[in-house]
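Narrative progress, year one. The postdoctoral researcher (J.K.) led the effort to move from monomer predictions toward full complexes, under supervision of the PI. The following entry was the first complex the group processed end to end, covering 276 residues in total.
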Amino acid sequence: MTAAMAVPMEHALVVAGLLFCVGLFGLMLRRNIIFMLMALELMLNGAALAFIAAGARWGNADGQVMFLFILTIAAAEVSVGLGLVLQMRRQIRSLDMNDASRLRG
Amino acid sequence: MMGVLFYVAAVITVVAAIMAMTRSNAAHGLIFLIVTLLGIAVLFFLLGAPFAAALEIVVYAGAIMVLFVFVIMMLNLGEQARAREQSLLAFRYWLLPSMMAGVLLVELLLVFNRGLHPMAVETVTPKAVALSLFGPYILGVELASMLLLAGLVGAYHLGRDFLTKDRGRSQ
């Protein structure tokens, strides 16, 4: 893979920005907590793609190291978030964030 | 050739992401999200990061998505929830979020509008990543292990059903 690639770095960053904006759009649009967690995953992936693209631009391993950290954070966030989803279902019998807007249910 | 592959994978990734965010059925959205993650893995591979591409498939499209599938199966969302989601996807709910995300996207595109830098795609080997990870970034690895431990304990705590019993007693 030593051949020079026809893709400039900015195009990879544009794809990363598009993914992040789609995730942000989904986070604002949806009220179902499962879709909101999925939107968070999309935003994290957009950030990871930006790191990988920057690492490829300078041929540096740091971008992939940052991707590994993002992966770790996403795994911890999803496990706790889905535990919260189960508790929400048990306590208020709904997955709608509008039903969970008050403290103490 | 590589450029064509990149743009095809990028279009599939973004379209699948938009589809995932606009489905009313959570299971369908999840399938599109998996397509998005596989597309991102292809992008990583084309950007000279084969190790990151493999991890994206194994950890994201494998482990994390399986968690989502388990939770969706356990909750068994019915037709009523689907109809409610459908009602929340009307155009008037779309307008403000899409405008705000669109403004952010335009700002990002303006930042990138200063000229194009070609990428010399050298494959960054897993060996280089590991040397960097366990050399200068060793503190980050330790912190990540602590974070995973905290996530494990938190998920175990939240997964127990004593919170429900406690609530029943207080009422």
